[in-house]
From TrEMBL:
Ferredoxins are iron-sulfur proteins that transfer electrons in a wide variety of metabolic reactions. Its cofactor is [4Fe-4S] cluster. The keyword Metal-binding applies. Residues 13-41 form the 4Fe-4S ferredoxin-type domain. GO terms for molecular function: electron transfer activity; iron ion binding; iron-sulfur cluster binding; oxidoreductase activity. This is Ferredoxin. Keywords: Electron transport, Iron, Iron-sulfur, Metal-binding, Transport. InterPro entries: 3Fe4S_ferredoxin (IPR001080), 4Fe4S_Fe-S-bd (IPR017896), 4Fe4S_Fe_S_CS (IPR017900), Fe-S_cluster_ET (IPR051269). Pfam families: Fer4_15. It comes from Methanobacterium spitsbergense. The keyword Cell inner membrane does not apply.
């Protein structure tokens, strides 16, 4: 992952979803619809995110419901970072 992140610390939280491993179960969207939706192919998408390779990534001031969504993901492909340390 990125090693030199010193200039990116204006937003504390970052949420990442590994789209290529998504099973389209819908848990993230159910628990956290303000951040997650399933796209037209049924794959989880983070609303307002940036596409980095096949991941969606979004930086935020607050964790919002990202932790609930990450905990609910049966294949554990939603990752939440605080100050670049992975919470889960
Ligand atoms: S909870 Fe995980 S597997 Fe289910 S739709 Fe969301 S990202 Fe995909």
């Amino acid at each position: 992952m990125t090693k030199n992140v010193d200039e990116k610390h204006h937003l504390k939280f970052r949420v990442v979803v590994e789209r290529d491993k998504c099973t389209s179960c819908g848990s993230c969207e159910d628990l956290c619809p303000e951040l997650f939706e399933l796209d037209e192919g049924g794959i989880a998408h983070i609303i307002g995110s940036e596409r980095v390779e096949n991941n969606d990534e979004l930086e935020m001031e607050e964790e919002n419901c990202s932790v609930d969504a990450a905990e609910s993901c049966p294949v554990m492909i939603i990752h939440v970072y605080k100050d670049d340390v992975e919470l889960l």
